[in-house]
Amino acid sequence: MAINTAGTSALSTDEGVRRRDWIHIAALSTAGVGGASLLFPLISQMAPSEDVLAASSTDVDVGAIQPGQSIKTTFRKQPLFVKRLTPEEIAAAKKDDAADMRDPATLASRTKEGHEDILITMGVCTHLGCVPLGAAEGENKGEFGGYFCPCHGSHYDVAGRIRKGPAPLNLKVPEYSFSSDTVVRVG
Amino acid sequence: MSFAWAKQYEPQSAFTKWLDEKLPFPRLVYNAVGAGYPVPRNLNYMWNFGVLAGFCLMLQIVTGVVLAMHYAANQAVAFGTVEHIMRNVNYGWMLRYAHANGASFFFIVIYLHIFRGFFYSSYKAPREMIWLLGVVIFLLMMATAFMGYVLPWGQMSFWGAQVITGLFTAIPLVGEPLQVWLLGGFAPDNAALNRFFSLHFLLPFVIAGVVILHIWALHIPGSSNPTGVEVKQESDTVPFHPYYTAKDGFGLGVFMILFTTMVFFLPNALGHPDNYIEANPLSTPALIVPEWYFYPFYAILRAFTGDLTIPFTGIVLIPAKLLGVIAMFGSILVWFILPWLDKSPVRSGHYRPLFRKFFWFGLIPTMAALFYLGGAHAEEPYIMLSQIFTAYYFMHFLVILPIISQIEVPKPLPFSITEAVLGKDKAVEAPRAGTVDGTDAGTATDGSLQPAE
Amino acid sequence: MSIRLGGIIAGLAITLVLVLWSLAPGVYNFAFGPAPEKQPSYAFYEHGEGPAGGFSFDGAFGKWDYAQLQRGYQVYKEVCSACHSLKFVAFRNLQDLGYTEAEVDAEAASWTVPGIDPATGETTTRPGEPTDYFPMPFPNAIAAAAANNNAIPPDLSLITKARHDGSNYVYSLLTGYGEADPAKAAKVGFETPDGLYFNKHFPNVNIAMAPPLAVDGQVTFADGTASTIPQMATDVAAFLTWTAEPSLVERKQTGWFVIGFLLFATVLAFLSYKQIWAGLKPKKG
Question: What is the model's pTM?
Answer without folding.
Answer: 0.91
